[in-house]
């Protein structure tokens, strides 16, 4: 038995699924397309915060990549990126615009944070983008 949905109901189902994903991970509000900081993460190191976001984005891609088209996934990634920037801004107690200038000031325009490891060597932590999966 095949289940055919028309274009409108498929779109409605996809929007509902994206809304659920965005709410589940606390990235913001999909309907208004507004990101939100995550205050429960500010007590972690910035590298750990990026690692948490990367784990969540990898989980989203592994679970939902086959159900959603690329445009919906890009919207989720955008809200996650803005949520990360706002979380780091909240942690540093500066504006999100200043954080964006400081951590996106690289040629690839990726969100990268450097942190010293136990041996005193700087290590870079970058937020995954949708291009990392395609």
UniProtKB/TrEMBL annotation:
Keywords: Nucleotidyltransferase, RNA-directed DNA polymerase, Transferase. This is RNA-directed DNA polymerase. Pfam families: Intron_maturas2. It comes from Gracilibacillus halophilus YIM-C55.5. The keyword Metal-binding does not apply. GO terms for cellular component: cytoplasm. Residues 33-104 form the Domain X domain. It comes from the Bacteria. One of its GO terms (molecular function) is RNA-directed DNA polymerase activity.
């Amino acid at each position: 038995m095949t289940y055919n949905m028309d274009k409108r109901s498929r779109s409605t189902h996809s929007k509902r699924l994206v809304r659920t994903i965005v709410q589940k991970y606390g990235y913001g509000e999909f309907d208004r397309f507004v990101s939100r900081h995550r205050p429960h993460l500010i007590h972690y190191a910035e590298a750990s915060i990026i690692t948490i976001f990367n784990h969540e984005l990898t989980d989203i891609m592994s679970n939902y990549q086959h159900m959603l088209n690329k445009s919906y996934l890009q919207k989720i990634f955008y809200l996650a990126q803005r949520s990360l920037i706002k979380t780091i801004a909240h942690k540093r107690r500066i504006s999100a615009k200043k954080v964006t200038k400081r951590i996106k000031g690289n040629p690839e325009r990726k969100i990268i944070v450097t942190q010293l490891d136990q041996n005193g060597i700087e290590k870079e932590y970058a937020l995954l983008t949708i291009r990392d999966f395609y």
